Amino acid sequence: MRFRLPVSGLEVDVRPPSGTEEVLLADATACDWPLTLRLVALIAQPVDRDSFDWGELVVTDADALLLLTRRGLVAEVVSGEIACRNPECAEQVEVAFGASDYLEHHQPVRPHGVVELEDEGWFGFDDEHLHAAFRLPRCRDLVELAAAKDLEGDLLRRCVRPNGVSAGVLRRVVQAMESLAPLLAHDLDAACPQCGWTLSAHFDPQWFSVVELRQRALSVYADVHLIASAYHWSEAEILALPRERRRAYAEIAQSAA
Known about the structure:
alpha+beta; 3 domains; 4-stranded antiparallel β-sheet; 11 helices; 11 strands; globular
């Protein structure tokens, strides 16, 4: 699978997780950013680059990469259920949308007056009254600030210089950041078809995609057991098989048993 990331324009080739990556997912105790970066480093490769520091990837690009990978391996449609909070209703409401449409709706836009600075990855304004520079939040920021009590504030202190800009300038900076790299994790609104109440559900592409990829990987140990029992292959040999071939062997072994 080849994708072009929306913010950086980086082209990335992504292969399906092998048995080794599925073990990584199955063993995970948290579907967080450290796990995400480990997984991406194993299955993704930038086109025309020998190496890449995935911690430097802009968060919006990382979210898009995960959502596109999930689309390629699981399904185009993202769906889930939320319970209506009307105490007289409590209807289970399905929320569904297309991953491609979602990403198209959140395409980055360069705001008027925002310019690139000499420092790679940093932006500024061509307005002489706006003395501020900023960069976009990266995956490494989220990993290093995982325990922060004020994540948004700490992110801005890392990504905006100088520290202590006025509230008005900071608003302009945040608006520019959100245009250059629209947040893909936010609340989605829906209406209950039964009673009409407005419902809200938080969608986080990173968490949602990694959870689904982990669920897809949970069969790896049963597959290894079935194939090893039937054919006496080693764990390493079984994990090296492409996933679809491994699943086919496991199904044959299960039927034979």
